[in-house]
Amino acid sequence: MTASVLDSITLGYQPLWGPRRTLAGVALFVRTVDAGVDAQHLLDAIQDLLPAEAPPLFLVVQSQRLLIDLLDHARPPLPAGRTPTFSTNGLFAPTIVVMAEALGRPGVAESVRRAYRRGLQLVWKGDAALPPDHTIANCFARHWLTLPPGMAAQALHEARRPAPDYGSGQAVPPGIWPPGHIFGELPSLALADYCLQRCGALAVAGWPAEDTVYHLRHKPLEPEHAVVLATLQALEADRPAEQVDRILCDDPLLAYRFLVYANSPGVGLRGKAESVRHALMMLGTSTLARWLAEQLPHASHDTALRPVKATLVLRGRLMEHLLESGVEGALRREVAMCGLFSGLDHLLDQPLGAILNSLPLSSRLYDAAVLHTGPYAEALQMAMALESADTPATHALGKRHGMPPEDVNRSLLRVVAGLQADALLI
């Protein structure tokens, strides 16, 4: 039954970023391919793949019948302080997100009220200027707000006002929205900071990647200090090479610069290092540790780019899972690197083809990321499509490439299963 459920839906995802630019949760967009999807079977299928320590999950259901079924049958979370029993220990209780346009459809509002009375955690998603009617607003624990242009301009004006003098004991004035909400589709880094810091938002859905890179255009972009330090600590703890590789690749800039260093004439390697793992094996852990120690003083403590880099990390992991069947370890790492490096042009402000050609990488990476051809192209396109709420487009892409929905959905859920909430590293 689980397999048929995952084969009958299309998923998409969006990370939710908290005040420290760490993962506060994951939004999972769900659309049914046919009308026969049972809500409890869907929850069971997700629970089978997600461990208890997975980040909080927000289900954004885009199909009316499934939404009503979930609202009517999903179990509420255990009350605070209640000890789990054998029957409740594995209880899966995601937060259900109800889109504003769905509330006007037959049966939805009634199901929302029943779900609220049963104790379900509900989020209303819609335009901040058009809040839910007062007769149903109390059913929602929080809102997922999209700012219309006028409100965005007002918030941006507030964000740009001079900060008070902390030495005088003045507190930072509160934002124009109450705390605890989620904000989506924010166009600028300044707005994201305002919502998270001044408004006390729970999270920002997605991240204004283009504006973040533009905002930092006059600064040399450096690898993140937390990733450099974590890689050094993994080496000092004598962790396996696979773990060191994975931690170092939590920052695409760090992975790229390590490969540039490993292949530089001054290092004097006899062969070419084609991947981070290959470079690690050729150089040895002592050389890597010395190089990382040299990077540490210049590494960045600014976390604004963390969500941008995390998008590439997750894209690489998704590609790895999408092409996992029958692929040996070295090729899986190559596939993951294709996703990891697919957005370096935005970070380095250089043509992607020139960046990839500057390293002795497999031509398969260039073909997929630049020419959109070759054996990795379809997986890269699907991994990028899954980053969107546009599930119809994702479904159409899967059909065009002959990728079974169950395989795609299972790959996405496995990637989500490997994430941790509020962790400094992805």
Spell out the helices and strands N to C.
HEEHEHEHHEEHEHEHHHHHHHHHHHHHH
User: How would you classify the helix and strand content by structural class?
Assistant: alpha/beta
Low-confidence parts lasting 5 or more residues at pLDDT below 50? Answer: 81-90
Give the distance, in angstroms, between the N- and C-terminal Cα atoms: 32 Å
Please name the CATH architecture of the largest domain: Alpha-Beta Barrel
Quaternary organisation: single chain
Structural overview:
The protein has 426 residues and is of the alpha/beta class. 47% of the residues lie in helices and 11% in strands. It contains 21 helices and 8 strands. It has helices spanning 2-6, 39-49, 64-73, 100-103, 108-118, 149-159, 189-198, 209-215, 225-236, 241-248, 252-262, 276-283, 285-295, 306-322, 329-341, 344-348, 352-357, 363-371, 377-385, 391-401, 405-417, and strands at 9-17, 23-32, 57-61, 95-99, 122-127, 142-146, 182-184, 203-205. The protein has an 8-stranded mixed β-barrel, surrounded by 5 helices. The radius of gyration is 23 Å and the shape is globular. It starts with a helix and ends in a 9-residue tail after the last helix. Residues 81-90 have low confidence and may be disordered.
